Each structure stands twice: as C-alpha cells, then as structure tokens.
Automatic annotation (TrEMBL):
Gene3D superfamilies, per the entry: MetI-like
Main location: membrane
Recorded superkingdom: Bacteria
Transmembrane stretches, start-end: 20-43, 55-77, 83-103, 153-173, 185-208
Entry protein name: Amino acid ABC transporter membrane protein 2, PAAT family
Family stated for the protein in its record: Belongs to the binding-protein-dependent transport system permease family.
Gene Ontology BP annotations: amino acid transport
Keywords of this entry: Amino-acid transport, Cell membrane, Membrane, Transmembrane, Transmembrane helix, Transport
Length: 215
C-alpha cells in the first residue's frame, strides 16, 4: 500500500473533482425528485380519476426496476428515439426517475398518516380542499416524513456511484482511474472514498435527527 503516492496532490485533486460531480448530480436529483414526488403523491392522495391510476402503475413499475437498468436505459436506449443526453444529464434523469417514485411513496404515506378529520374541520372553517391540503395536511406530513426522506436522500447520494456504468466522472469513477494506474493505491483510495461518503451521509443523518427533535 502506497499512501504517500496515492494521496499526492494531483490524485487528491482528481478525486475531489469527482466528488464535486457526485455532489452536483445528487443535489440536482434530490431537488427534482422531491418536487416530482410531492406532485405524484398529492395526485394519488386526492385520487384524481385515471391520472392517479396511471401514476400508481408508473410508481410500482419504477420501484421494482434496478436503478442501474434505468440509468442504462436513459443513456443508451433513448438515443434510438433521438434523445441524446450527456453522461451528467443522463445520470441526473435516471436518478430522478427512480428516486421520485421511491420518495412519492414516502410522501403519500405521510399524507395518509394525518387524520382526515382535519380536512373536514378545515373545510368547515371555510378553506377549500386545496387550501386545507396546502396549509393543514402537507406541513404536518412533511414533518413526519423527515427521517425516511433523508434516508432516501442518503441512498441517492450513494447510488450516484452506479453512474460509473456510463463513465460519469464522479467519485468512484475517478477513484478507479487513479488506482488502475498503480494497484498499490487501491486500499488508500478506497479508504478515502469511503471517508468522503461517510462524512456527507453522517452529516445528513445528524441534520435529520436535529430536525426530528425540533418538531
């Protein structure tokens, strides 16, 4: 094991560049999937005819497919119908599709956990159904969803490593490039990669705990 060589500045810089790509992909996918998940969950919760049934099929289908297959499909299969995405965009789209389906179930469960009698009380006080959902039900549901949603975001961050299949220059990809030049770098580089993932994910866990205790 050559820690000194593995942790030379050029190697560290290259690894950190990959880590930045990992964080960028994860951040975009988290934002997009969360927005889509809320929309999907509300439509299913309110049971809009036809649309809610279609979304049920979509969610169940996506949840039961491997994320690796979805990323592979987005990058390679869509090219056959004229949709050509770069590796960064394909990774974001693939992760967003998968995570939005997963998170939508968390959001829907949170909405269903709120007593429906509160909607009736809100309607009786003069609020519309949409206003009751926005101001009464959704805020309560979101507070209850913090732990599982953060856990899903942590999984998403780790899942960015699967984009190595389409050669996205993220953390695992760049680490592999480094230790392929010298096999004495394998353990030092993998240890550093593990540390970087741990620091970010553990920080998210601490934030989730603090938010949960402050409810």
């Amino acid at each position: 094991m050559d820690f000194a060589g593995a942790y030379s500045w050029p190697n560290l810089r290259y690894l950190l560049e990959g880590f930045l790509v990992t964080l960028e992909v994860a951040a975009l996918a988290i934002l997009l999937s969360f927005v889509i998940a809320i929309i999907v969950a509300i439509i299913r919760y309110t049971k809009i005819p036809v649309l809610s049934q279609l979304l049920f099929v979509w969610v169940e289908m996506i949840r039961n497919l491997p994320l690796l297959l979805i990323i592979f499909f987005v990058y390679f299969a869509l090219r056959d119908v004229g949709i050509k995405l770069g590796v960064f965009s394909a990774a974001v789209v693939g992760l967003t599709i998968f995570e939005s389906a997963m998170i939508s179930e968390v959001v829907r469960s949170g909405l269903m956990s709120v007593d429906k009698g509160q909607i009736e009380a809100a309607r009786a006080s003069g609020l519309t159904y949409g206003q009751a959902l926005r101001y009464i039900i959704l805020p309560q549901a979101l507070r209850r969803m913090i732990p599982p949603i953060v856990s899903q975001f942590i999984s998403l961050l780790k899942d960015t490593s699967l984009a190595i299949i389409i050669a996205l220059p993220e953390l695992m990809h760049n680490g592999q490039v480094i230790y392929n030049t010298n096999y004495s770098y394998v353990i030092p580089i993998l240890l550093l990669i593990a540390l970087l993932y741990f620091v970010v994910n553990f920080s998210l866990s601490l934030i989730a705990r603090r938010l949960e205790h402050s409810r």
